[in-house]
Model the fold of this input.
Amino acid sequence: MSSLEEVATLFVQYYYNQFDQNRAGLSILYREGSMLTFESASFKGTPSIIEKLQSLPFQQIKHQVATMDPQPGVAPDHIMVLVTGQLLVDEEQRPMSYTQSFYLVPENVDGQTKYYVHNDIFKLVYA
Done:
């Protein structure tokens, strides 16, 4: 597994685990310049993004990732990640399909390279 795939895989696992268990915990993955487009609504900055994620109208959610495709970004060590999958909310028996893309940007934190989400686009897929 390449470093690009490794970073993307670890990020996706962490992101959806946090989303499913503690959406507020996602705040460490966003910055003031981060942007989320959720369906057709856009949100900029960590407080706005987390407020949107916490306001989603369900109590329980479980993401099931089907595919995860990373590509190098425009700048060194930047990563574009496209995820497809299904999610189950609350007591719903039929999963909903979704696609989500992330643009990850590296930053140096205490001598270690960490990634944050600069861009995040989420869409439900209606068939």
In short: The CA atoms of residues 84 and 99 lie 4 Å apart. The domain at 3-125 is CATH 3.10.450.50 (Nuclear Transport Factor 2; Chain: A,).
